[in-house]
Give the backbone structure.
Amino acid sequence: AASSGQLGQYVPNRPDEMYAPEWVSWEEFLGLMRSYEDTRNLAVNVLGLKTYDGYILFVRGHPKRAEGLRIPVRPDLFYKEEWVDEETFFS
């Protein structure tokens, strides 16, 4: 993000301290995708998604929200090392 210019001209040495009240994590600050377990938990327990088709409809229907949530369009491909199957992801 810093090299793309998205953060502007000034990038603090310690953004975790400068932005402490709203700080979440380095991954969030840098715009990195969530882990498999975080994405799975968010999809199932927060968004209430129950199927792969429902997940795909969500990310395609709400691309900016999905980007803001830092979840991939295709979790089966993005998390290919962890992915077992749809049933496991949505259980």
